[in-house]
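R.M. (postdoc): so does anyone remember the format we settled on? I'll just put the structure tokens first.
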């Protein structure tokens, strides 16, 4: 993460986020879909007569199935970000920060 932030500007990261919004997810999420399609193809090619065809979504794991949480208060989110920033050795460059 540190290398990514060192070598890419926030403008470039925003451009990648916008690109992903248009083209679909990059990385592991896209791979889950591609492997789901591949697995469904193989599975359906070897299924017996009368068996229902499987869809790619039947083979894609469902991530983060924890309890639905209420949105966090902005102060809680800020405290979390500050904590992560400290653990990763980041600097707080806001005016008046310690």
């Amino acid at each position: 993460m540190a290398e990514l932030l060192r070598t890419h500007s926030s403008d470039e990261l925003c451009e990648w986020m916008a690109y992903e919004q248009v083209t679909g997810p990059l990385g592991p999420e896209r791979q889950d879909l591609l492997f789901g399609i591949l697995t469904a193809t193989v599975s359906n090619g070897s299924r017996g007569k009368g068996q229902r065809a499987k869809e790619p979504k039947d083979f894609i794991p469902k991530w983060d199935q924890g309890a639905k949480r209420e949105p966090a208060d902005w102060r809680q989110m800020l405290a979390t970000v500050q904590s992560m920033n400290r653990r990763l050795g980041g600097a707080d460059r806001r005016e008046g920060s310690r």
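R.M.: ...and that's the designed sequence above, right after the tokens. Also worth knowing: The radius of gyration is 21 Å. The mean pLDDT is 82.
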